[in-house]
Design a protein that fits this description.
The structure holds two protein chains of two kinds.
Chain A: H1 10-38, H2 40-60, H3 62-65, H4 73-102, H5 105-110, H6 116-139, H7 151-178, H8 182-198, H9 211-219, H10 223-235, H11 241-246, E1 252-253, E2 256-257, H12 260-281
Antiparallel strand pairs in A: 1-2
Helix pairs in contact in A: 1-6, 2-4, 4-6, 4-7, 4-8, 4-10, 6-7, 6-12, 7-10, 7-12, 10-12
Chain B: E1 20-29, E2 32-42, E3 47-51, H1 58-65, E4 73-78, E5 81-82, H2 87-92, E6 94-97, H3 109-119, H4 124-137, H5 153-165, E7 171-175, H6 183-200, E8 203-208, H7 211-214, E9 219-224, E10 227-232, H8 234-240, E11 244-250, H9 253-262, E12 266-269, E13 274-278, H10 281-292, E14 296-302, H11 306-314, H12 329-337
Parallel strand pairs in B: 3-8, 3-9, 6-7, 7-8
Antiparallel strand pairs in B: 1-2, 1-4, 4-5, 9-10, 11-13, 11-14, 12-13
Helix pairs in contact in B: 3-4, 4-5, 5-6
Classes of the chains: A mainly alpha, B alpha/beta.
């Protein structure tokens, strides 16, 4: 019995694979957007928590915060709230893989003749897009609390949101690759997401905190995503010198204050590491 | 060489390869041997049923053929491609319908199909036409833009079959396709499947523990405890376990037995009946009655069913909870003969 196989140059084959991977990434990404638009309640509820924090911290705690150098504490908290919105939306999007697993759709994706990398990248971009949209809607509330927006600031924030959300979605996809059941999701939320947000400097300044807390915040990768965001927001504000000193941006380790570029590099590295781990996590067969 | 009704669009197809070729395929999970070396061949365009009770190794076998589980022994080729060495080529050539649903409930029927088309590399220019055709094939064209969450179980299953066919696979695998469906929906699904086979010439490999469904298949493999105990057409399998039986209860069984034997029938004398073994029970009932020569109280004609075949080869009935107590006498007869 003869076996005839059409001669295919490897270049042609690579080209085909690359095109199909791109199509797959786009399709998985589109599915995320379709699902996002279709679940209006999810869009609304994902704003509830950050807005609640904005009010509790920004208004309720302002009187307790003490010296703020003539800069409203809620203005300080605001970039952190934007980051919080982005992070929780990104993690939620990524974790929807656990739902896909429960409802079987994950299988449809995993048995397809496409690379796991394309699936994971598509999912990550999808989650990141949704999170960036949510974060930007939050950003649009800025004028309501007196935070001044400039076109440059908006562009910078969107760029940082995209980076931050990609990193966090990749992290979430990796976690989802290890979670088999829905209950595991609750555990992740309690043990990972909340501590990460609370200990990232999103809700309080990172200088002048106890040493042990300073160590934890410096280990938390989210710290390096929140700080640039706050930095660009503050750069566009008219801040009194006292306030700028009180709410100094920049993460300091051993008296060394990191430049933003290094912080962004750390977040990028975080993205690459977890994207790789996520792809590996979904590439196992039994 | 068998006339191949194969997909002309499948890339780099292996000419002359069987649709499925399996040699000594085995799977061991630690101490447990789920599949103990099965061998069979399925030709293009055939409908092949894997029949056996739960836990017989059906799903493990189908998973190995679909590259979802790595075999621990033997080999399997799908359309000429080895499942272990070229899993991606194999996946490109197969359509899968799992036991459990694998649709996205939040997408419409069309969106689910479109997603699949991209995943399986259906050329852009063909996607629309294929979606139209697939939906028409399972009579869901009107529900095209409806969310899958509004579909009944049967509709969802048929949509999955349409989806499995979207990339014109060489082999469509259906793992317990009618599980959880009501009889009416099951019949509808079978109509779809048989239409697919007729119009698309696709090879269909299915597993089921419903014996009556195996009748749809051209050939049946009976699997029990990880081994294939028999494989053939439904008719041939029934023939292997014996002829039809005509069971008579008469006013004088001794006389009836004597007369029938004299007339050349093969018979067996039961306690309260005489059983004649004939090629075609229904056609011969009249001549048997005529030959009996004594008043007849009851006549029962029994044609072997696949249930009988299964019982014959495994010594058990296929469905649990239908054990020996409810066994009719002719079943007992076959069971003893084993």
């Amino acid at each position: 019995m003869s076996v005839t196989q059409a001669p295919v140059t490897s270049a042609h084959h690579h080209h085909l694979a690359a095109t199909s991977d791109l199509r797959t990434i786009r399709m998985v990404w589109r599915r995320e957007l379709i699902r996002f638009v279709r679940t209006r309640t999810r869009i609304l509820t994902s704003f509830v928590q950050p807005i609640l924090f904005l009010f509790v911290l920004g208004y309720g705690m302002t009187t307790l915060v003490g010296t703020t150098g003539g800069f409203d504490f809620k203005k300080f908290v605001f970039p952190g709230i934007v980051a919080m919105t982005v992070v929780s939306t990104a993690i939620f999007s990524a974790i929807s893989i656990v739902w896909d697993r429960e409802f079987g759709f994950l299988r449809e994706m995993l048995v397809a003749p496409v690379s796991r990398g394309a699936l994971v990248i598509g999912k990550t971009l999808g989650g990141a897009s949704v999170a960036t949209v949510q974060g930007t809607i939050m950003l649009a509330l800025a004028p309501l609390i007196g935070v001044h927006l400039t076109p440059l600031l908006v562009i910078e924030v969107i760029g940082l949101e995209m980076l931050m959300s990609s990193a966090l979605t990749a992290f979430g996809v990796f976690v989802a690759s290890r979670i088999q059941r829905m209950e595991g999701f609750q555990v992740v939320m309690q043990l990972v997401l909340f501590p990460m947000i609370f200990l990232s400097g999103a809700l309080f300044p990172l200088n002048g905190i106890p040493g042990w807390l300073a160590v934890i915040t410096r280990i938390n990768p989210l710290t390096y995503a929140v700080d640039p965001l706050r930095h660009v927001v503050f750069a566009a504000q008219d801040m009194p010198a006292a306030a700028a000193a009180r709410f100094a941006t920049g993460v300091t380790i051993f008296n060394y204050t990191m430049p933003i570029s290094l912080e962004i590099l750390i977040v990028l590295a975080f993205l690459v590491v977890f994207l790789t781990l996520a792809i590996a996590g979904f590439s196992k067969t039994d | 060489m068998i006339e191949q009704a194969r997909n002309p669009l499948a890339p780099y197809a292996h000419e002359g390869a069987h649709a499925i070729e399996v040699e000594n395929l085995a799977k061991r999970y630690g101490e447990v041997e789920a599949v103990k070396g099965v061998s069979f061949t399925v030709e293009h365009g055939e409908v092949f049923a894997f029949v056996g009770p739960n836990g017989a190794g059906k799903t493990t076998t189908i998973r190995m053929l679909c590259t979802l589980t790595e075999p621990t022994g033997g080999r399997a080729l799908i359309d000429g491609y080895d499942v272990s060495k070229h899993p991606r080529d194999v996946r490109q050539r197969i359509g899968l319908v799992f036991q459990e649903q694998t649709l996205d409930q939040q997408l419409t029927a069309e969106e689910n199909l479109r997603f699949h088309a991209v995943l399986y590399g259906v050329p852009k220019a063909e996607v629309e036409a294929r979606i139209d055709r697939a939906l028409r094939m399972v009579q869901l064209s009107e529900r095209r833009s409806d969310l899958v969450s509004t579909f009944s179980g049967g509709m969802a299953r048929r949509l999955e079959i349409a989806r499995g066919m979207l990339h014109t696979p060489a082999v469509l695998f259906l793992d317990e396709p009618t599980i959880g469906l009501d009889p009416q929906t099951r019949a509808l699904m079978w109509e779809d499947v048989m239409r697919l086979r007729k119009e698309e010439g696709v090879t269909i490999f299915l597993t089921t523990h419903y014996m009556e469904e195996a009748e749809y298949a051209d050939r049946i493999a009976i699997i029990d405890q990880g081994r294939i105990v028999a494989a053939d057409t439904s008719e041939a399998l029934k023939r292997t376990i014996g002829a039809d039986t005509v069971e008579l209860s008469t006013g004088d069984d001794d006389l009836a037995a004597k007369n029938l034997e004299a007339a050349g029938f093969t018979i067996k004398r039961g306690e309260d009946e005489v059983v004649a073994f004939v090629e075609n029970g229904e056609a011969q009932v009249a001549s048997i009655i005529a030959a009996t020569g004594t008043p007849i109280r009851t006549v029962k004609v029994h044609r072997p069913t696949l249930e009988d075949v299964f019982l014959h080869y495994t010594g058990r009935q296929i469905r649990e909870g239908q054990g020996g107590a409810s066994m009719p006498p002719h079943f007992m007869h076959f069971a003893r003969r084993r």
